[in-house]
Design goal:
Blueprint: E1 20-24, H1 31-42, E2 45-47, H2 57-62, H3 64-89, E3 96-98, H4 105-112, H5 115-128, E4 137-142, H6 145-155, H7 165-180, E5 187-191, H8 201-211, E6 218-221
Parallel strand pairs: 1-3, 1-4, 2-3, 4-5, 5-6
Length: 227
């Protein structure tokens, strides 16, 4: 079992965790790691993207324009199916942690698809994303492009080595814009550049303690404030 999957005892102090948590952020920021740790701490099920199941992803990283539409549509169908399964499995008490927010899916489409492809994507998206459940908390992990590049290099996934700085910068820009105006659920924005979610129990404990008090609105978590 990896450090990211290990359970950490969390003092809830009589507080109830959000029933449905969505963790978001650009590639390499640590969203899946955090989702797994939260699920372990709260005994929740995970709802994960499973990017390795996308047969077009490696080709996309090698030639984004050529493989963008197929890659995007595969992810869209995959995410929509997972949302549908979530609703059907436990519609009354969904206790889940997801490493994606389906409303952000068009972010990638806008920067990767040409005009005709994006129009086709939008038509499919509108048909598939009806009645997605609303998270009780969205956690948005932010990190600089330098940090993302370093973490992608450290995890050593061969297909990701073709990801370049310009692409990550564009991703960071569209994520920042999206969450600047996001009001679909309580939102926690985390400075993930300075936090070790894979191995840092202290950082993780502070983050969980902070998020358990969130019931509404927009909040910011900077781990450097905790010394």
């Amino acid at each position: 079992m990896s450090d990211a999957d290990k359970s950490l005892t969390v003092d809830l102090k009589g507080r109830k965790p959000p029933a449905y948590i969505a963790v978001e952020g650009a590639i390499g920021v640590g969203k899946t790691t955090l989702a797994k740790r939260l699920a372990s701490s709260f005994n929740y099920q995970t709802l994960l993207e499973d990017a390795e199941e996308n047969p077009f992803l490696e080709r996309f990283y090698q030639n984004r324009h050529q493989a963008a539409l197929a890659t995007q549509l595969f992810f869209l169908f995959q995410r929509a199916q997972k949302i549908q399964d979530l609703r059907q499995a436990d519609i009354f008490e969904p206790v889940r942690v997801a490493d994606f927010l389906i409303e952000k899916d068009p972010l990638f489409a806008r920067i990767n698809l040409d005009g005709d492809e994006f129009q086709l994507y939008e038509k499919v998206y509108q048909q598939l994303t009806i009645d997605a459940p609303k998270p009780d908390l969205v956690i948005y992990l932010q990190a600089s492009t330098e940090v993302l590049l370093d973490r992608i290099e450290q995890r050593g996934i061969a297909a990701e080595r073709a990801i370049d700085r310009d692409y990550l910068e564009r991703l960071n820009e569209v994520y920042s814009e999206f969450f600047l105006y996001y009001d679909g659920a309580p939102l926690l924005i985390v400075n993930a550049s300075e936090i070790d979610l894979a191995n840092g129990d202290r950082d993780y404990q502070h983050l969980v303690d902070y998020m358990l008090d969130i019931r509404s609105g927009r909040h910011y978590f900077n781990p450097t404030f905790f010394g």
